[in-house]
Design a protein that fits this description.
Blueprint lengths: L7 E5 L6 H14 L5 E5 L5 H4 L10 E4 L2 E6 L1 H12 L3 H9 L1 H9 L3 H14 L11 E4 L3 H15 L6 H14 L4 E7 L3 H17 L4 E9 L6 H11 L4 H26 L4 E4 L6 H14 L2
Parallel strand pairs: 1-5, 1-6, 2-4, 2-5, 6-7, 7-8
Antiparallel strand pairs: 3-4
Helix pairs in contact: 1-12, 3-4, 3-6, 6-8, 7-8, 9-11, 10-11
The protein binds adenosine-5'-diphosphate and magnesium ion.
């Protein structure tokens, strides 16, 4: 029987490698298997709306595909949510949020907004089990540098910030990120030289920190295996020249060879790297296929 998957699944990697697409695909597959996935995307560069063709993704879960919920978490919304919780007296929260000097201070204090964001994620992950609880919670983190900063904060800052509520939140977030039974960090890359180099570097950095536990290393957009280059050249000779179709087949064959080389280079260091197929374009059917491929390939 497969082991139960940790409830919180974080995804990071260089911009453009397919993180958001993979998160969406994994969510579709989880829903197909009868689970109740929640996608959390961070910040202003939201793409889930476009992926699911759903215009209204706000700070509360919305169903974006059958069984798949998504929300967009902005730092400011995390601050509001926290202040409203922490100061349940309505007038008081309103006063704090309306006090520009105070909110500016909160926004400028290093790490406070990030901690509040992680804390909001923790609320979803640690919600009471039940038919309305979400599992898995899939977080589409911003690109690598930002993700590392976000994940590092609780441990860096808990040494700096004295007592008080923010410190308690940091402890909570730190516990969640360090709990291998609850949290995995997935790394996503492409089969090309620079993305592979950056992925290996990122893997070292996360491994050095010792947390979160690394989930899968995903190599997205592996081209399909076309005709071998030699067969294409033979074919070219046979038809007496290089008509467009043959040139195209030759290009595809070379691109495939280059991707395979990069995948082997990555696997020389990280043998468990998992490959995912490239599609001509990504629509609902491809999302489902990608999700199935991911679930079959993952250990
Ligand atoms: N397996 C795939 N096959 C083909 N195109 C893909 C695949 N995965 C992602 N893409 C495309 O690559 C682009 C970047 O993907 P996206 O998920 O937005 O990346 P990221 O979130 O890492 O910035 C999008 O146009 C997406 O449709
Ligand atoms: Mg993205």
């Amino acid at each position: 029987m497969p082991e139960p998957q940790p409830r919180l699944q974080l995804f990071t990697g260089k911009g453009g490698v397919g993180k958001s697409t993979l998160v969406a695909a994994i969510a579709c597959e989880a829903a197909r298997r009868g689970k109740r996935p929640l996608i959390i995307e961070l910040g202003h560069r939201a793409t889930m709306g476009a992926i699911f063709e759903h215009a209204q993704i706000g700070s509360e879960p919305t169903e974006v595909a059958p069984g798949v919920h998504a929300l967009n978490l902005q730092y400011e919304a995390a601050l509001t949510r926290y202040v409203q919780r922490y100061l349940p007296v309505r007038g008081a929260a309103k006063w704090v949020l309306g006090n520009r000097a105070l909110t500016r201070f909160m926004e400028a204090a290093p790490g406070v907004l990030e901690t509040l964001t992680l804390n909001t994620i923790a609320d979803w992950v640690e919600a009471k089990p039940g038919p309305d609880a979400y599992d898995p919670v899939l977080v589409d983190l911003d690109s690598t540098g930002h993700a590392l900063m976000l994940l590092d904060l609780p441990s860096v800052l808990s040494g700096l910030i004295g007592r008080g509520p923010i410190r308690r939140l940091m402890r909570r977030v730190e516990r969640l990120l360090s709990d291998a039974a609850l949290c995995r960090l997935h790394l996503v890359t492409l089969p090309a030289k620079l993305p592979v180099d950056e992925l290996v570097e990122l893997h070292h950095r996360v491994a050095d920190r010792g947390r979160p536990t690394i989930g899968n290393v995903w190599v997205n957009r592996m081209p399909k295996r076309p005709l071998a280059a030699e067969s294409v050249e033979l074919l070219g000779r046979f038809v007496g020249g290089m008509p467009a179709g043959v040139v195209q087949a030759l290009d595809a064959s070379r691109a495939h060879g280059a991707a395979v080389d990069q995948l082997s280079r990555l696997r020389a260091q990280l043998p468990a790297a998992v490959e995912l197929p490239e599609f001509a374009s990504v629509g609902p059917a491809e999302l489902r296929a990608l999700g199935r491929a991911a679930s079959e390939a993952a250990q």
